[in-house]
Predict the 3D structure of the following.
Amino acid sequence: MGTDSAASIDGAPRASAVSVLGKNWALFFLLASVAVFSVTGSNFFTLANLQTILYSATVYLLLASAETFVIITGGIDLSVGYVKGLSSVVGAVVMRNLWYVQYGIQWPPAAAVAAGILVALLVSLACGLASGLLVSRYRVPPFIATLGVLGVAYGVTLHASDGGFPIGFLPPGLREVGNGFVYYHNPVTGLSRFFGPPEGTLDTQVRGLIRVFPNSLILVILFLLVLWYLLKHTRFGHHTYAIGGSMDAAVRAGINTRGHLLLIYVLSASLAGLAGVVDVFQTGTGNFTPMGANFELFAIAAVIIGGASLMGGKGRILASAVGVLLLQVLDNGLNLSGVESFYRYIATGVILIVAVVVDQLFPDLF
Amino acid sequence: MAYLLEVRNIVKRFGGLTAVANVSMGVEAGEVVGLLGDNGAGKSTLIKVISGVYRADEGKVLFQGREVEINSPTDALAMGIETIYQDLALAENLNTPSNIFLGREKMKRWAGLIPVLDHEYMHAESRKILQKLDIEIPSLRNRIRALSGGQRQAVAISRSIYWDAKFMIMDEPTAALGVAEQKKVLDTVNLLKSHGIGVIVISHQMHDVFSVADRLVIMRRGEKVAERITRETNADEVVSLIVGAEKVQSPGER
Amino acid sequence: MKQQRGLVSLLSEYWAVAFLGVELVVFSILGAGFFSLNGLQIVLFYGTSLFLLATAETFVIVTGGVDLSVGYVMGFATIVSAKLVAAFARGGMAPTAAILVGILLTLLIGLGPGLLSGFLVGRLKVPPFLATFSTGGIVYGSSLLLIGGVAAKEVPILANEIGNSYLLYWARGRGLSLFLAPEVARGTRVVEIVPSMVVVTLLFVAAAAFVLKRSRFGQHAYAIGGNVDAAVRAGIDTKSHLLRIYMISSLFASLSGVIYMLEYVTGKADAGVSYLLDSIVAVVIGGASLYGGAGTVWGTVLGCLILSVLETGLRMSGVQTFDKFIAVGVILIFAVLIDQFFPELVHKED
């Protein structure tokens, strides 16, 4: 069952072309799902719905990217969901307190928002530093280190949100930006505009507007590209794979593994913090992450669907993105196909199992 | 000559790769055969077929003159075929007696009814066999993790001997050992010989192989390329066979 | 020797015991009524779910895996047991029989998720993380499906009585009585000693400890966790062993659900979700390594106590539970650091 160490016998590397192809089963599944749901789901294959999928995938794409780096090094980051929550809440609190008149000071909205973003990112950076130090310097297993950090993050979040209440009274315009699109077209008036509804659009026409390309997607695509480049074409990326492949070899090759691992966890938490900021923009409030929200599990599952191994050494940003999309499409498609929520959990679980098993049994299939 | 263990026309493939291609060889009781070859020659695969970790795609295995089916490590162990792997296959988190009895633990009845591990027995028996082989292990209670390379090797060997091996396979037994410990291992191999146990030794250490093996079988790229009687050959010839001189037949070879 | 190892590593967890002691002292001071028979029993009562789930995890973690489905299986079991018992009672069975049969059937069904997970991990070599994650999702969906109908009504009162009963009662003038609350004149104080469910839990936990420590099955679990190749080559059937390990995990999670149902007479799909991370934390505090090959049930129990006391103590001291998470996080890291810096403490000789 694929465990016979064939690769080591003849010395030649098991054709990497095979593994590249073999990992594309996820893409195949994704496309197949889209095809199936287009038929079974009402209004699945529409511009609006597809963009909805991408929109809700935004946060997960960031979290999965974060996990990709960590998992390649053979580690795991369980705190991403809760760092996101922390960042969302803390950022929102700062934005509110600096802008909402009741709290005394009143900065201009843009400044308050900027400050909020900054603080949110700093806070998540701190979490990443904590995890990173524990893992790199004190050799705490990543599972435990990030579990500990998440506990602290969760507690702080609860304090900052008075027990889990959403943080409101934020500067205006956030939701418009977060939920906005790049291009709007009013089919009734025939007018279009960038970044806002065209002039003369009546309230009754708002629903019928054609919207293209969510704003948040711009950000995410930008980051995905940068991260993809980082992982694939820079020394940092290569070292990441090296550490995941063999920590010993990496150390002996002169790589500063300690510093590198620290950076990896800082990166992971920062991306989670960014996801929190996106969350504030998308919802217009600061939201804490409840226990059992399982963001991290979905992110990790997406990364593994994308071909990474929990042992480390493998994984790619774009493949993880495919994993996220697959899970999102499944959720959305099943919903639109009229499948009730409980069946969705079952279906997702079954599909995941089938997917992994196919990968195990037939690594050469694609 | 009656072989104790014989393999005929063994083929083992992994996907598109043929790791062992039509190999036939045999070992007599009380004989030591050195299995030689460069990395990737198929030596490890061949012995894993014999020890039941892999199943051959084609070919037969004969033990004590009868054809046998070895479908799992348990089958091989039941027949008395013991293997000492290069990585020793010891559980680092368990102690010496637990490792010696791994998979074959001795049980006793607790309250007359429930089977429980009989640690006292296993401890005592382990002490006996280690003493018999003149092996020094300070505390049997320590986890194997705490032992040196040579001591772990010794534990692995004692395990095989304790279970009355009739046939022993040793994969790189002297690698990573100090000189004194290497000598101990070779002495043990001679001890096995004198007890009528057949042995296959895989090793890269020419002088070890030459000092202990009666016959040599050389593999290359999955095939058996040559067989020699040790005293009728020398290191240079063997090396050139390993590295890739043409396949050479010597009298008496199948 | 293994028995002594359990005792020794327990004793060498001095720091953990000391920590527990400190907790008890601190909360006794801070919280009204903490250090009383009642207070301590509350600790145990609320800890039962954690004990059972953490015991389940212990088996799995020793083999080097992890079971993410235990919380969902527990919830599933609460629903299945409630529905079965109600159905049987409605069907005319005597309450005792309905409860008994309902519970046994639930436990049997509860082996199912473990069978699936174990099959995936053992035979198909699916990483435990993914296998149990998926199984958990399937179980959760099934729970929602079952409860999407009607909540279980007509669960006999007897169930609630059993769930909330105590092993011993003492009343002035009536002496001790076993299991059944004594009839007393109004105003007489009845002292309740040791909730029955705690007794049941401890029995199962003790049985688990025995199996892990003294049986061949347990020994092989450690071997698989330490070096699965060595186990395979020693002739251990690792595939079916892993199958059984995950089934045991599932069984304990189901048991936890059954007890929950008896205590609260209700089925709740996410009853166990909040215990998942805690259960893994407890196992690690108890000395296990996530890489496998180490850990004991009694160590896990100690870890559970530390967490349970923390939770109850904080609550009774009026401290916000927010800080519990921070505290748990800190304790966890503390536990591992101790392991790092003082390995002799934990990795003592057998």
Remarks:
- Chain B has two domains: 1-80+167-254, 95-164.
- The interface with chain C takes residues 51, 53, 72-74, 77, 83, 85, 87-95, 97-99, 102-105, 107, 110, 115-117, 119, 123, 139, 141-143, 145-146 of chain B (CB under 8 Å).
- The mean pLDDT of chain B is 87.
